[in-house]
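Form 12-C: Joint structure prediction
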Amino acid sequence: MPEEALTVISDQRVAEAWRSRLWPRAHWIEVPPGETSKSIERLAEVWSGLVQAGCHRRSPLVAVGGGVITDLAGFAAATYLRGVPLYSLPCSLLAMVDASVGGKVGIDLPEGKNLAGAFYPARIVALDPELLSTLALEQWAEGMAEAIKHGVLAGGDLWSRLQDPGLRPPPAGESLTKEALELLARVVEVKLEVVAQDPVETEGVRELLNLGHTFGHALEWCTAYGLSHGRAVALGLLASVRLARGLGLLRVDFEGELTALLRSAGLPTQLPAEHARQCSLERLSAALDRDKKARPGHWRFIVPRAPGQVEAMALQGPDQLGAVREAFASLIMPAPGGTLR
Amino acid sequence: MPEEALTVISDQRVAEAWRSRLWPRAHWIEVPPGETSKSIERLAEVWSGLVQAGCHRRSPLVAVGGGVITDLAGFAAATYLRGVPLYSLPCSLLAMVDASVGGKVGIDLPEGKNLAGAFYPARIVALDPELLSTLALEQWAEGMAEAIKHGVLAGGDLWSRLQDPGLRPPPAGESLTKEALELLARVVEVKLEVVAQDPVETEGVRELLNLGHTFGHALEWCTAYGLSHGRAVALGLLASVRLARGLGLLRVDFEGELTALLRSAGLPTQLPAEHARQCSLERLSAALDRDKKARPGHWRFIVPRAPGQVEAMALQGPDQLGAVREAFASLIMPAPGGTLR
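Section 2 - Result
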């Protein structure tokens, strides 16, 4: 395939770093970096860009970027001419271990995140660890939150290896070690195994990937997305373990291991003070009530009993909902002078 | 299912006629009537309407309207929360025999029609002939163009029955006869049979449904959509038969039968003079070159050798492309004082 026949969708920052080294002669469609590009307006621009590039039904479309790009480009590929071939080249740890894998693509609506989309797996997801060499440490931590989640889901050997030797960013100018690459591949496999059992989320298996995310989404919503997704998921994982304990379901006390792992990845274990005021229990309840899987007062959580032993549970009634609130409250360091309502 | 849990997407004209008689207590999302509602802007409004109606993943969505609505509502259903259950209640003959059946949904882009969309079949398509009672005769003819196309595809008994007794609109205030209903069902079956063999247009079978449409789309584009879809398809069918003759492939001369059938349905057999100036052969060639299935100078047509004997052919070279141009030119009555370039 001649390079000129490729159409690449990317963001301006990634394109600046990689365009000349990847496919300089391809047709690049670029959007501004950041979550705001997962919008109807940018989708419309990408669609128009595909027409102007002369893309037809068999034109390969390559998504090069982080999760925002794999989501946006994936949705454009799913819908342009009712579907064109999608290839994915994720450029962040987060996109490698999560967003680019499993076929969920989509955009945000003014009313909320990921409300419009499709299931449209890329034909090939290529993991090129060299692309991680330009990733900021802060961004590495975003991906680690999902990697740690996969560790809790899989348990066993993966859970041990994430603690020792751990998955650390390569020193500047160097590539990942062979050992780190193998660990990265294993982290991705956990998601692939879950998705293979439940590709379009109808079998109740894929739901397990929401571990840490019900709390996490509530934190993102309460903080008006001031808290990043990875950091929200990190806190959500910790709250889930505490919820399991509160429900009397925790079989192994792995809160200490999880806390240490989150810290070593540069992730928070308490809600930063600047966000604490936004996260009252009233707002948490409102956030949980609007979860896609919930009905008011009937919340659904993925509860980890031990690494490798997680299950989806519907929670209701004062005791169970109280345990949810307590787990959430445990994350919050009251702001100076403030109290937790 | 309580009526209040239904969300209906419709256009203002259809809603005015049918809302109170169908589901007055459902949540109705209404868009203006007409092709311009198949836009990104209206899609965004429908998505927001679904959020505001509190729709979740299992909320049933009912499309009530003609082809514009089944396309727009179908695409909204395919993509809202990555897919919610779609039910279709087509209100025009055209939507009954074509648009609502087969899973193609989508919107137009500023660059062209149906450029963004999905394959998303409705769970149930309910044909209620009573809904046809408010259909204008002009609209009936739009549907007849596709019904006649299905007749050419199927040939045999259907082709005969379309000529005698024919499929005519019911007299004002009356319903379709049992005989007409059976004929309508048979027309729909033709499309279902083709789609079942090739649901996402990968097997080369579904392409046969494009009979009359390659010429038809070119006519719509050349006239800037001043010519309606049904009328363009009617002329496209006629041009296809003439193309088959020009290529020396016509086995049975059914041009007379087709012409009579189109006329009795109120469909044109020559391009109206007001559009003739817009349809030069240069513009036709440009229109054909931008067909989704074409490369410049390599055109793909569905060629009918006889009713029930149609095939897809790639045409190229001066003789074959000349036959295409002649078939097209035969539709055009030069405008007063104008010449066909």
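Section 3 - Comments
The first helix of chain B runs from residue 12 to 18. DSSP finds 13 helices and nine strands in chain B.
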